[in-house]
Design goal:
- The protein has 89 residues and is α+β, with helices and mostly antiparallel strands.
- The protein has a single domain, classed as Ubiquitin-like (UB roll) (Roll), CATH 3.10.20.
- It contains two helices and seven strands, in the order E-E-H-E-E-H-E-E-E.
- A five-stranded mixed sheet has the order 2-1-7-3-5.
- The radius of gyration is 12 Å and the shape is globular.
């Protein structure tokens, strides 16, 4: 499946295939997201999910509380719906 991702507040949009990470889809489409390691260890790509669902192949390096608050790691997250994300706290 192909899903739309909207990054607020800049209204940056791109598409992500459910079989690729959110970060890899963004980079392929020329959308610059902060990142370093691409494996979830550096936490540079950490952002908050405002709407939508993601899943991980491996458990992310986030606490249950962080996940409940909507924090995701786009370098490891796979979209399972259309998403609205923000890089702001």
């Amino acid at each position: 499946m192909i899903y739309n991702v909207l990054i607020k507040p800049d209204d940056i949009e791109f598409e992500v295939d459910s079989h690729q990470t959110i970060l890899s889809a963004a980079l392929e489409q020329g959308v610059s997201l902060a990142h370093r390691c691409k494996i979830g260890g550096c936490m540079s790509c950490l952002c908050r999910k405002l709407e939508g669902e993601v899943e991980y192949q491996l458990e992310p390096m986030l606490t249950a509380k962080e996940q409940q608050q909507g924090w995701i790691l786009p370098c490891q997250a796979y979209a399972k719906s259309h998403l609205i994300l923000t890089m702001e706290e």
